[in-house]
UniProtKB/TrEMBL annotation:
Ranges of residues in domain Acyl-CoA oxidase/dehydrogenase middle: 142-232
UniProt name for this protein: Acyl-CoA dehydrogenase
Gene source species: Streptomyces jumonjinensis
Keyword annotations from UniProtKB, A to Z: FAD, Flavoprotein, Oxidoreductase, Transit peptide
Coiled-coil features, chain-numbered ranges: none
Amino acid sequence: MSQPKPSEYTAFDPMDPLGVDDLLDPEDLAIRDSVRAWAADRVLPYIADWYERGELPQIRELTRELGALGALGMPLTGYGCAGATPVQYGLTCLELEAADSGVRSLVSVQGSLAMYAIHRFGSEEQKLRWLPDMAAGEVIGCFGLTEPDHGSDPAGMRTRARRDGSDWVLTGRKMWITNGSVAGVAVVWARTDDGIRGFLVPAGAPGFTAPEIRHKWSLRASVTSELVLDEVRLPADAVLPEVTGLRGPLSCLNHARYGIVWGAMGAARASFAAALEYARTREQFGRPIGGFQLTQAKLADMAVELHKGILLAHHLGRRMEAGGLRPEQVSFGKLNNVREAIGICRTARTILGANGISLEYPVMRHATNLESVLTYEGTVEMHQLVLGKALTGLDAFR
């Protein structure tokens, strides 16, 4: 096969240096571009102000708009869900997090945690009751697993559900719950005499409150809450019937982590783009700083890690489409991509200098958001140990 002449090559694209877009089909590109356009119109003009104020105003309106885009429960089928491919869902996460991690978290918790739990483990009645309205963004969901004293070790949870006649009675607390205070339904995991079970707790249930957590310096444009369950009485049909044990919540987390693999690259891309534009226009010593070797070295290293991460996300997405994606591979992606995304943000900040700490630019906002993304849904250390066990066959968790 003859090699193309240099004149036949397509133009080099600094934002797609490896030509990854060539791996996407027209529907993939159309979905990506529609989400990018929505974020540019509905998030980017306002996000610095929301972040500075520490709130996500009009969250219900935004959620309905995301539902209209098909972004909620996107890879799920039926019940009003889009039935999109894993890669299309990943591209959506990337574009949303390029705007802000808080918006991507809203979508991830809604679809990959709350809706996924109901879709996979719920009864037909539960699916019909909740999923269509959640897919449309009319009902917001949250996912209650983490507790004040039990994050990385959910097996130690203290929230309990006991039988009282045909009812269940839940008591306990959950912490760092995205969407908690605005949710119409909470998927709450609790210890029972038969093992860990999932329960659907509707907002307004007596004894159930969700006070919002304030004073955050990360994910500020996001609703984060505590869930307090004080003898919350639920009917027998509130329990998710199709799973018992940690397999239930951990499978949900694995699905959400996949979205993070893509989303982190969105934050990294936005920071890289800001640094690249700044380097082309900011002048020192009589010329743009992008013309100096050290700045070019930084930009080259950032581009390499950014697009390696996007290729990794794409590879994992195709494996998920084929039904062969293992949890250890998701850990591989989450560990690498979030860690590298933070590194890209920090390097971008050095290129912007003092301007890098200003909300006029997205870099510091993305960097601080990623500090939360680095920790939630599995810390660096937990994913290292998941991979360590897979590599050696030896369990270092206990």
